[in-house]
Amino acid sequence: MNLAMIGLGKMGANMTERLLRDGHEVVVYDLDAARTREVGAAEGATPAFSLTEVVQALPSPRVVWVMVPAGDPTEMTVREVAELSAKGDIIIDGGNSNFHDTKRRSAVLAESGIHMLDAGTSGGVWGLKEGYCLMVGGPDEAVKHCEPIFLTLAPTDGYAHVGPSGAGHFTKMVHNGIEYGLLQAYAEGFEILHASEFPLDLKKITGLWNHGSVIRSWLLELLEIAYEQEGEDLERIDDWVNDSGEGRWTVQTAIDLNVPAPVITQSLLARFRSRQDPSYSAQVIAALRNQFGGHAVHEAKPEEPLPG
User: Are 97 and 74 in contact (CB under 8 A)?
Assistant: First the structure.
């Protein structure tokens, strides 16, 4: 089917390629015109150099997928696309927006007859090959119309319509909160292993635990890759771990709902602590975030020699 992809970063470009491989026709747009030309030429998409061109290039009902950072970039993009759209058109927000913002935007657009879907998207830099897990919220009719897109992007059984507008981003928020806890548990465990008296091969242990162990996971597979690339001391990676918002929102929502969430909360606080003191566990988390999401790492600075 026909759609547009706005935002051609790590996720947007790979999603575009996956869609084109399956026969969809995609109009692409990025604020960086050179990036638009690059993706258009490499993947065979139709380049557009303004949002007006994007909308004009699509047949009705138009489907526009917005894949830009949460907050003001999404707010402005959705608003501008909506101003150019008509009744029956569909805007999909595939970024990590706060579900409260999604509910508000959806209600505003509905007054003009424009549908808004929120597609919580997980898969990171591996999504092109493995597919993206999609948690979609929005009205039934619009979701059904866009289902061919979701089925192309997701692996088998990796897409679900989880509820009304906001439910997709809410589900993805909790998903990322759980991710915080998992990353912290692995990081602490491997710090204990790394600090022990035994000459342990940590890369070998990550592989071992992925065969029959109850804690086997894709994250352990990625940690094995990280150790292969970086070495077990992770010397290149600084112990500074960012948080992109979803962990904070999950903790705040747990408070609002009177739900105890001590593991996720402490995992978030550990990220704050990582920005103060040296920590091997924080290096593990930074390495893992780089592996699954392509998140930038702070490279460790070499220690300066002591004077004298």
Answer: yes
Q: Which residue in the list 43, 103, 179, 224 is annotated as catalytic?
A: 179
Sign of CA dihedral 256, 106, 148, 71: negative
The 10s digit of each residue's pLDDT in 228-256 is 999 999 998 888 888 888 999 999 999 99
172 is catalytic: yes
The structure's pTM equals 0.89
171 and 122 in contact (C-beta within 8 Å)? Answer: no
Separation between Cα atoms, residue 133 and residue 157, nearest integer Å = 9
Tens digit of pLDDT for each residue in 10-56?
899 999 999 999 999 999 999 999 999 999 888 789 999 999 999 99
| All residues at 6 or more sequence positions from 215 whose CB lies less than 8 Å from its CB, including other chains | 209
Torsion region of 294: left, alpha or beta (phi above 0 gives left; psi -120 to 50 gives alpha) = left
Catalytic (active site) residue 301: no
One of 172, 191, 232, 301 is an active-site residue; which one?
Answer: 172
Per DSSP, 45 falls in state: -
Furthest CA-CA distance within the chain:
74
